[in-house]
Amino acid sequence: MEQTLRYISLLVLAFLAVSNIECTAQTASSNQRKINKAEIITGADQTEKYLSYLKGKRIGLVANQSSIIGKKSSVDSLVSLGINIAKVFGPEHGFRGNASNGAAVSSEVDAKTGIPIISLYGKNQKPTKEQLADIDLMVFDIQDVGCRYYTNINTLEYVMEACAENDKELLILDRPNPNGYVVDGPVMTDDRFKSAIGIHYTPMTHGMTIGEFAQYLNGEGYLEKQCKIKVIKVANYDHDMPYELPIHPSPNLNTQQAVMLFPSLCMFEGTAINEGRGTYLPFTILGAPALKGKYSYSYKPVSIPGMSERPNHKDSVCYGLDLRNYDIEKLRKSRQINLSWVIELYKAYPDKAHFFTPGRANQDISAFDLRIGTDQLRKQIIAGVAEAEIRQSWEPELQKFKAIRMKYLLYP
Description:
The chain is α/β, with parallel strands linked by helices. It has helices spanning 2-36, 51-54, 74-80, 129-132, 152-165, 210-219, 256-265, 328-334, 340-348, 367-372, 376-383, 387-406; strands at 58-63, 68-69, 72-73, 84-90, 108-109, 116-119, 137-141, 169-173, 229-232, 285-288, 297-299, 318-322. The chain has a 7-stranded mixed beta sheet with strand order 5-6-4-1-7-8-9, with helices on both faces. A 3-stranded antiparallel beta sheet has the order 10-12-11, with no helix packed on it. It has a two-stranded antiparallel sheet with strand order 2-3.
């Protein structure tokens, strides 16, 4: 009888242990689901982590229309919270984000707050010693899209350089990279291809946030003197997460589809193909008049103030590809820039000698090369090299960059 009771007791204990393990596993699974479903919170929205650090200081804020806290402009929000914004520094497209690509932007005074707005895309791209003289702390809060040829990372370097030279600290309010899942394209390694749309030795898409890229600039010797930085990290974020931007980062990236296609379509700016500039569908359509009869989709680029005043093929009907409904998940799953479109349109273009537009005078460097960061891809396309072989030629430098990038990541 005693042995029977002991046996029953062991069975009960075993049942309770298994039940406890299952309960713990269910709780862990539930907690994991909560973590996975947690809302992404930008650095700017975590005011509890930096507001006290700003109090009592004269702040220089690098910002544009994408700089928001909640749904309000970061400038307005911080001023209402008692922060002394001494100056605002605006990048390409201006503080309001309403200047066309490449257009010089003048400095001004903000009509709403009376705060001076210093343009970093006009007379100077780097803050001057005089402009920083009455600043105690610089704050960088701009949405980036993860491409070498998107000039916000150039502005970041110039601001870091100015801060380092003038012993100013830079606080970065980090934001997710909507293209953070892709590290792809040729790595620029030759200074001959440096330009206003490419000054870093990275692939076409670098897969880093602004905070991570700032660490990369410091760590890889881009600055003569390292900049003292402090990063307010994005909460609940990793590079594979889809992230829909709450505000358009620039006039011609006016939809989420355009933001996601931008890494693949911006290279067309160095060709005879219009990439949707001069329409309200930029970076979602492609075409040229010379492709009439080869594609049925058509559109007409026109001058649009604040977006594209002089688009390629202005006032001419273009024929080509409509990518507005292209499944972006295909790009996400491939983790690659789409190379097939530029190969396809080159093959379809009747005047191949004029497909790639000129770049620098007296040099065999096209406008396409300056975006790509090398002339190799242009030459491979002309020679009819297969896409797989082209991609394989990127791999040695791409793998080196990926190893370097790993050192500076703040997120999985």
